Amino acid sequence: HPSYYHRNSIQQLELPQRKAALIVPAFETLHYRLTFPKSKAELLSMLDMGSLYTFRYHVWPKGHAPTDFAKWRTATVPYRVAWQPDFEPYVVVRRDCPKYDQRFVGFGWNKVSHIMELDAQEYELLVLPNAFMIHMPHAPSFDISKFRLSAGYRGCLQTLREEFHQDLSRRYGAAALKYLTAERSL
């Protein structure tokens, strides 16, 4: 049972005493109806058969590639991954962790900025070896349509990203330079 597994992981990893974000590897299907896998072995079989994919690998691989799905396939214990530009995993964190930046409502940069902030605060990014989630297909959201169709929306988002970088620099000093450097090299 997923919530039992998460509770167990939280206890074993002593999450209440340490700064860690537990990454739940994300997959997706293009099928509207799917029998949810009951185990990691079943999920891997579905992945190999092509009924599941790693999340957004065909449109936005950078978002989840740092999870290191090749390593996850055989992992039996949680493993640490490093922050990379545009990383936006789904995470389980303590309630007192930094909140999402409210500037990034709608589509674009909410999870990316959150993981950046966690990394800046030296949270460990730990991938859970037996956890997974599956994104099911659905109609595009109103916000993603605005992002795709409106140059004004994308311009505003870029301004907010620049403000966010400045705020990180003010709060974390030289340690935050890596985020800006990564952003500029993209």
UniProtKB/TrEMBL annotation:
Keywords attached to this entry: Glycoprotein, Glycosyltransferase, Membrane, Metal-binding, Signal-anchor, Transferase, Transmembrane, Transmembrane helix
UniProt xrefs under Pfam families: Glyco_transf_49 (PF13896)
Topology of the protein relative to the lipid bilayer: Single-pass type II membrane protein
Molecular-function GO terms, alphabetical: glucuronosyltransferase activity; metal ion binding; xylosyltransferase activity
Coiled-coil blocks: none
GO cellular component terms listed in the entry, alphabetical order: Golgi apparatus; membrane
GO biological process: protein O-linked glycosylation via mannose
Location relative to the cell: Membrane
Principal cellular location given in the protein's record: membrane
Protein name per UniProt: LARG2 glucuronyltransferase
Species this protein is from: Horornis vulcanius
Gene name in the database record: Large2
